[in-house]
Amino acid sequence: MKIKQFEFTPLAHYSYAIISGDKMAIVDPSRNPLPYYNYAEENDAKIVAVFETHLHADFISSHLQIHNETGATVYVNKHAEAKYPHKAFNHNDTFKMNDIEFRCIYTPGHSRDSICILAESENKKYALFTGDTLFISDIGRPDLREAGGETDDEREKLARMMFETIQTKFSDLRDDVIIYPTHGAGSLCGKGLSEELISTLGKERRTSWAFQINNEEEFVKELTSGQPFIPNYFSFNVEQNRQGVGKTAINFANVEFIMGRTSGGKEIITIDMRGEESYKDNHLENSINIMCTDENDAMETWLGSIVKPNEQFEVIINSADDVKRTFDRISSIGYDKNLKSISTLGSGGFCKMHQFCYEHFKNNMELYTIVDVRNKDEYEESKVFENALNFPLDKLMEEAENIPTDKPIVVHCGSGYRSSIGSSIIHRHSPDAKVLDMGEYIKKFN
């Protein structure tokens, strides 16, 4: 058995290829199938199966595209109610691939369709692909589909299902079974995911909070509290993955490419994905700065939080060299359908942001309206400035009108990335106000 882990850093997403002889299976593939195709070719293997551990909320899977292009069978639990060609993979169902047997363990809790996939070879239970059920140091939250209409009652039901899952579904497995989760640190699918890439079931039994709490009420309370915010696009992605999504090339062909853009407007949202300094120095009127300069930028999360799933938008980039990379990242959350154009900025001066002066602010804080765009729980846990107003970034498009403009507005977050987005949103809403992005200067106050 040969296992390869693939990482899509912006969404802290892990997917897997498992090879036995001349055949290969994939677990929870990302939107771009090329890395799996290349790996199969390198190993002279044919892709015969794709396993979906559940309907993903934070990324679009390429399961349907892989099926269409390779003939591989897609295996998914019946509770997913998948609309694409597939084979139901329910509790204790098995699939044999040369000397590997894959067995389904039904593990509801994160969602009703969640499964884990046990890979056995030579009668040894070797690897457990845990999806969003069991992470390293954490477990999957039960509320990601609430934006799609799920209630508090459903969240509690799922939390109780997760308790049953943790208490009973892995009890027959040895401590040395290797855990391969679908997400790691930085994912919004849990609240305390480790940066480690793999673990063992024994280590998780000893160290993960989920295995330490044996009281159901206490477990439910812990699982349902303190979870991160839910981006707008999550429920949209669940439905997209239920239907199955085709090639990105179709949508790429419909995107207009403009060299030297000179105007923008409020009729369609303009997202400027250049670095914050480039944006502050020169940008189109009404544009919002969501940086996409490297893999550590959480562009996907914030694009999917600020732009609604069916809302059209256009993008500004640094150069033509960034076109394909930017499009691929946008497509990872299914927003390529909404993308109207990708442009570079034309020559000439457009709009500028005011520059933040650290010394003046430090000595005259009372002269400023301070806006903290961190999540509510972050704000309440560690308030940086006593008189700061909390306007969480994921709600700022709707709430910006409530920010006082009688003083210069200083925007901060925890590191500088979100404050760039937040200050540009406030600047877009109140163009006559003096809006200042504190950026990385926040680190001097932490």
Could you explain how this protein is built, in words?
It is a single chain. By secondary structure, the protein is an alpha/beta fold. It has 3 domains: 2-238, Ribonuclease Z/Hydroxyacylglutathione hydrolase-like (Metallo-beta-lactamase, Chain A, 4-Layer Sandwich); 247-345, 3-Layer(aba) Sandwich (Oxidized Rhodanese, domain 1); 358-444, Oxidized Rhodanese, domain 1. It is 27% helix and 23% strand. The chain has helices at 34-42, 63-70, 152-168, 201-207, 209-212, 216-224, 233-243, 248-252, 276-281, 299-306, 323-331, 358-363, 376-381, 396-399, 417-429; strands at residues 2-8, 13-20, 23-27, 46-51, 73-76, 87-88, 94-97, 100-106, 115-121, 124-131, 178-181, 199-200, 256-261, 269-272, 288-289, 313-317, 339-345, 369-372, 389-390, 409-412, 435-437. It has a 6-stranded mixed sheet with strand order 1-2-3-4-5-6, with helices on one face. A 6-stranded mixed sheet has the order 7-8-9-10-11-12. Strands 13-17-16-14-15 form a 5-stranded parallel sheet. Pfam families: Lactamase_B, Rhodanese.
